[in-house]
Amino acid sequence: MKRRDFIAGSAAVLAAPWAVGADLPKGPIKILVGWAPGGGTDVFARIVGQKLSELWGRPVIVENKPGATGVLAADYFAKTKFTDGITLLMAHVNTHGIAPHIFKSISYDPLKDFSPIALIGATPHILVTSAKNQYASIKEVVELCKKNPGKISFGSSGTGSVQHLAAEMFNMAAGVKSIHVPYKGSGPMQTDLIGGQIDFSFDTMTAATAMVKAKKLTGVAQTRVKRAKGFPDMLTMDEQGFKGFDVSSWYGVVGPKDMSKDVARQINADINKVLLMPDVVSRFDGYGVEDGGGSVDKFAAFMATEYKKWGEVVRAAKITEES
């Protein structure tokens, strides 16, 4: 065999695993994101989208449609008939786990109006307070709340956000009452938290990490049962006596409800390849994103479990649009 033929043949073999996108429907490929550029959901969509573009040899366009903490995009996606190419949606715990239990205006069914494809990952939240405070354990936070019933404030990025629900879970588990202070995003909430206008927040690890590392906020506990790689020395709520306390913001890719199962499985397989790439793993570790990947069926079961869990929290805490 001639050397050039051997090289060409080797290149073809190496390229073969990356050519699976050739069987995908023709036309533009888009990932719809329900938040503005720069946020966690947008960043993760762009990381995955770029890698899928390289994998498939076709552009993958990330399109932002912000509003109502992701609900606007999810509602649009559920009601639109996409006839050209492939359009995907970055699903989120808010759009598919929490908001449908709270907001009466939501008409889509988070489990029936979408085709689950793949879990991108989940990020813990961190119970944070101003670095000016000296609270070092969840026990101290509980004692503070019990000594000042109805006076200690917990900020969130909005009514029905994961930060809001995490604080309500804490209230129920600790047997305390606190004040919920909603903001329009983590940015303005963090400003008041650092300044001492509010006392605590179960902020996302993605948003809180920079402030904790800059020592403007103090991390008291993280909210998944297992410690995140990015914060190996910070105790979890579970380790500090709140057994089974497990709160995360999760992100996943879904398709239209009429997407063929073969296409969903193919995209799932390619996303799983992306999530194993060393540079993607490194970037995701920096954001606290873990436990992504797995089959289509595994993601579907995960979404159903999350929907049920958050519905129970919403009802138990009596959270409404006016909360």
Topology:
Blueprint: H1 3-15, E1 29-33, H2 40-56, E2 60-64, H3 71-79, E3 86-92, H4 93-102, E4 114-130, H5 138-147, E5 153-156, H6 162-174, E6 179-182, H7 186-195, E7 200-204, H8 205-213, E8 217-222, E9 248-256, H9 261-275, H10 278-287, H11 296-317
Describe what this molecule looks like in 3D.
- There is one protein chain.
- The protein starts with a helix and ends in a 6-residue tail after the last helix.
- With 323 residues, it is α/β, with parallel strands linked by helices.
- Strands 1, 2, 3, 4, 5, 6, 7, 8 and 9 form a 9-stranded mixed sheet that branches.
- It is globular, with a radius of gyration of 21 Å.
- Helices cover 43% and strands 19% of the residues.
- It has 11 helices and 9 strands.
- Strand 5, helix 6 (162-174) and strand 6 (179-182) form a beta-alpha-beta unit.
- The chain has helices at residues 3-15, 40-56, 71-79, 93-102, 138-147, 162-174, 186-195, 205-213, 261-275, 278-287, 296-317; strands at residues 29-33, 60-64, 86-92, 114-130, 153-156, 179-182, 200-204, 217-222, 248-256.
- The chain has 2 domains: 3-123 and 249-317, Bordetella uptake gene, domain 1 (D-Maltodextrin-Binding Protein, domain 2, 3-Layer(aba) Sandwich); 125-240, D-Maltodextrin-Binding Protein, domain 2, CATH 3.40.190.
The CATH superfamily label of the largest domain reads Bordetella uptake gene, domain 1
Q: Helical element count?
A: 11
End-to-end separation: 74 Å
Alpha-beta classification: alpha/beta
| CATH top level label of the largest domain | Alpha Beta
Task: Give the SSE order as H and E letters.
Answer: HEHEHEHEHEHEHEHEEHHH
CATH architecture of the largest domain: 3-Layer(aba) Sandwich
Q: Total number of β-strand segments?
A: 9
Mean pLDDT: 90
